Amino acid sequence: MNRVRVLASARVGAIYGKTDVVVVHARAQRLDRASRLALAAAQQVAALADAADCGVFVLTRFGAIAANAEHWSKFKGGGIGAVSPLIFPSTVPSAAAAEVAIALQAMGPNFTLCGDASLIPELWRLAEDALAIGDCTHALVGAVDGWHPVLERFGLKESDVDGACFALLGPGDHTPHFHHDTSIVRAFDRSL
User: Cα 165 from chain centroid?
Assistant: First the structure.
């Protein structure tokens, strides 16, 4: 495993008791909840790096659930004519990582892994490898999940799911500590 250093980290969302999400970007109002959370956390740490040479690496479990629920509801209620082309891009799990890269103009590699906390070590490895081979000089690495009431069907509460945690990685000497948890965001946070 390559060695990296955590230069900064940020946390937002109901998991942390921070339900007010402040995003400074023109596109913010049309972003889905997960993308707004990811961008709010990423913006807090990205100022320390040259965004043009920054990679974005994101883990999500429920990623696009809110956008998918909204898209399906509109389709079910009014057919194809009722759906919004502004919602559709947010229906893919990689939407949060893409929105972070677009807003911050990050030109490095962009990866999204979908799954539970067991994928955190793999996410770190992707970022470490990109740093090691020179694909980027810094990496924004994070976990994000946005809340939607449909998750109540699985016994989840907003405070279990809704949040984002991002770290800015650069070359250095750090070995992350990996934890498993039902919340990928909490587990990622504890790996810092």
Answer: 7
pLDDT at 1: 47
| Within a domain: 73 | no
The H-or-E segment that residue 127 falls in is helix 120-132
Number of domains in the chain: 1
**Length of the chain in terms of residues written:** 192
Residue 184 included in any domain: yes
pTM exceeds 0.90, yes or no? no
For residues 34 and 38, give the distance between their C-alpha atoms in angstroms, rounded to a whole number: 6
How many other CB atoms are there within 10 angstroms of residue 118's CB atom? 11
| Phi (first) and psi of residue 140, to 5 degrees | -90, 115
Q: Which domain holds residue 141?
A: 4-63+93-191
Secondary structure class of 179 (helix, strand, coil): coil
75 has pLDDT over 60: yes
Which CATH number does the domain housing residue 49 bear?
Answer: 3.40.47.10
Q: Which of 32, 52, 65 is nearest to 153 (CA)?
A: 65
Both tokens of residue 68? Answer: 């998918």
